[in-house]
Amino acid sequence: MTLRHFLTTQDYSRAEIDALLEQAAAFKRSPRGQQLAGKSVALMFFNPSMRTRTSFELGAFHMGGHAIVLAPGKDAWPIEFEVGTVMDGDTEEHIAEVARVLSRYVDLIAVRAFPKFQDWSVDREDNVIKAFAKYATVPVINMETITHPCQELAHAMALKEHLGNLQNKKYVLTWTYHPKPLNTAVANSALLIATKMGMDVTLLCPTPDYVLDERYMEFGYQNAKENGGSLKVSHNIEEAYRGADVVYAKSWGALPFFGRWEQEKPTREANKHFIVDEAKMALTNNGLFSHCLPLRRNVKATDAVMDSPACIAIDEAENRLHVQKAVMASLIGQR
Amino acid sequence: MTLRHFLTTQDYSRAEIDALLEQAAAFKRSPRGQQLAGKSVALMFFNPSMRTRTSFELGAFHMGGHAIVLAPGKDAWPIEFEVGTVMDGDTEEHIAEVARVLSRYVDLIAVRAFPKFQDWSVDREDNVIKAFAKYATVPVINMETITHPCQELAHAMALKEHLGNLQNKKYVLTWTYHPKPLNTAVANSALLIATKMGMDVTLLCPTPDYVLDERYMEFGYQNAKENGGSLKVSHNIEEAYRGADVVYAKSWGALPFFGRWEQEKPTREANKHFIVDEAKMALTNNGLFSHCLPLRRNVKATDAVMDSPACIAIDEAENRLHVQKAVMASLIGQR
Amino acid sequence: MTLRHFLTTQDYSRAEIDALLEQAAAFKRSPRGQQLAGKSVALMFFNPSMRTRTSFELGAFHMGGHAIVLAPGKDAWPIEFEVGTVMDGDTEEHIAEVARVLSRYVDLIAVRAFPKFQDWSVDREDNVIKAFAKYATVPVINMETITHPCQELAHAMALKEHLGNLQNKKYVLTWTYHPKPLNTAVANSALLIATKMGMDVTLLCPTPDYVLDERYMEFGYQNAKENGGSLKVSHNIEEAYRGADVVYAKSWGALPFFGRWEQEKPTREANKHFIVDEAKMALTNNGLFSHCLPLRRNVKATDAVMDSPACIAIDEAENRLHVQKAVMASLIGQR
């Protein structure tokens, strides 16, 4: 029997995603259980976190389990991920040992490992979490690498709570400005889950340079086809927003400039007007607004939008707790 | 129904304070319970901690609950507290989202946020914890900002254990030297609780510059009046110590020099003789000595005083655990 | 009745060590219990950790208890260990208060405090953990200082699992290269436990400068005598490996160069060939290989050795969990 991980929603069928969302809804109605009684999960944070850490740690506690929070390179030893290296540099320990030892201690391993932002051809291989999955003998959960599947589930759950059936709802994923070039993970993930739920998806971004990695674009087109939705790219703000049922905002760095961010800066700064504001939201079909958080107010979205009833970002954040409990309970269940 | 927080003891009547102290004494006799069964508290540390973090985390555990420890800006995202800001600087997330999201996850939020020590007119507004209280939909607990109400309760509890009735006991709050200009929080708090318990309180400090903020002096005079005690300021060491039942030591920076600490340094250094030693303690009425800890030995108090039977600082520290359990149980009870 | 700590295995008789190993084996078969129900342990990390922290935290959880993780000087106040100091430097709090206060909160205190690597005559006094043991009123556990007794138990347990009776098994502790001069703790500990188990022990190192501190050599000779084994030093790789049942690798800095590490560097670098590889392992009696981890692959041991069936380092790491539960349960039991 193959060990099942939760690395990307693409490894899960639509029916399996729907089942996870139903279990999450059950956890929201009735939060306490014993699904993880006496069990434990290691949370490996290569990058900072507030929501993710809190919701995983609490999720384990709610189900009778315990989360161990580890920050390699900060309060734990720096880890080597390459195979065959002569480890005479900074790393003190190989992922083979880390993953095998952790697998002896805990029942689940969750990993947050952002890109290093120097070479996309390297970062897009997602080597850190793949190495955990390769060597671990317990299930591995993605807490955000180059996709963010837990956020996807929380997002879909919030949309379903507010809209009911999502089939062919008009969904806009809009790029926004941010002073730093950010990870494409949540944008990739928004594409994946919106198309998987059969929505009519528009990826709105300033120029073709901001289109996402072809792997995720391909998955999007394929998901749309399989689930009766659609996917298109637009650079026209008004056209994209008009009639939208959902606006999901995210900033990300343009992949062709990956690692040469100074050269991307002028384009990014020329497009601050992509901010989500009341004028744009007025073009929608009384649309919902959401964001994965953290969000810089008045940079990515205005105070007025954030504080409006249309904003469901807090609901989405809450749902992280419920969906992650569903994921953990489901993965533990297979053992 | 208004949500009740625990931001300062001034929001609590003498009868409510007495009730919390009684509940704390009950926890000391019988530490385990289920008052927080399945519940959780987020501990937000903007500054370091040993006692506070340990006692809150254990307190939650003793009552069947779970504490999440977060350090914004270190292992969580840096937070914006101003309203309406265009967040294109260092902060990644607004307190409105942080407090609302945490309120969906946990049942209590506790906050440690020291002053920034640059502008007292800003720091005295206590904006960080006030912003948590404004946006949170769960009770907020002060783990030390510009007052330290949990320390107040632990201090009062220790004094009652050793002295019984505190009414009109002679209480000296003495300034001491410390190489750095420290927070006035515990000094403010000592004034508040000592006057609230009806003691005859002397604030002993080197010069009028070391008198505390007028807000807390006013609260002190008002508390003294309402509870049959008194409050006076003295710069005379011998006079202040003579006949004292309690000596409580604390160092703090002089408010008129706030943010211009180099100019305060000569005065501070000229008053190293405020150290609590055996000669001074010999002037008291067989008085107790205490301190909130951490304490620099032989700077604020001598080894001889710290190691004498008069020193009840360890008891006071222990009581942090018991009073905080009373506070958490009481706040959870209202929901 | 004297309070019993777990500072070094030298304080424990062979029979007591055997009893702890039996209890650990029982925990391995049946991990959950209530031996620490409602109890707590403070884990004081003056240095980083992955295995130690995870295994102690989980161990407490498995037995119904709770671990508090503290990092003094990072997320808690820096601590003074000298007696009588005028604390006007960097330290904010004396160990006398830290240990006494923690003893009021928790039921066990575990301490990791590596040497400072400047003056071995200071470091060999092990003042940090000794100060905890002096002032604490609860049992203190060594999580690695200048010895690593928890690792010793885990190591002995893994060897017994694979070899059965260890009496007069041929055991080689080999020095290996590492780019930095490391702590002798695990090397000292390997000597102590291997001789205590009655094995025939060879300490293999490049030159007499790498022989361990006389205190641990003496303990080794004494243990060997009492338990029917032997201890010798060798600088001949082939001779040492030939016929070995166990090869245990560790790198450490040569004590005569302590604090003058630049002068040791040429010798260290001239001995990279001490790496554990297949050729050397082929000389053994189908010997086992182990290491305490973290291990730099292809520096201390080759990939081929690490990935061979002879390598029991992962088993040894797993056993940390079981032996530490035995230690905690045993120390709690005395109270």
TrEMBL record, chains A, B, C:
- In this chain, where does the modification N6-carboxylysine occur? K300
* Top-level taxon: Bacteria
Chain positions recorded as N(2)-acetyl-L-ornithine binding sites: E144, K250, L293
Q: Which SUPFAM superfamilies match?
A: Aspartate/ornithine carbamoyltransferase
Which locations, inside or outside the cell, does it occupy? Cytoplasm
Its recorded reaction(s) are: N(2)-acetyl-L-ornithine + carbamoyl phosphate = N(2)-acetyl-L-citrulline + phosphate + H(+)
Record-stated family: Belongs to the aspartate/ornithine carbamoyltransferase superfamily. AOTCase family.
> What does the UniProt function comment say about this protein?
Catalyzes the transfer of the carbamoyl group from carbamoyl phosphate to the delta-amino group of N(2)-acetyl-L-ornithine to produce N(2)-acetyl-L-citrulline. This is a step in an alternative arginine biosynthesis pathway.
For this protein, the record's HAMAP family field holds:
AOTCase (MF_02234)
- Name of the molecule in the record: N-acetylornithine carbamoyltransferase
The species this protein belongs to is Dyella japonica
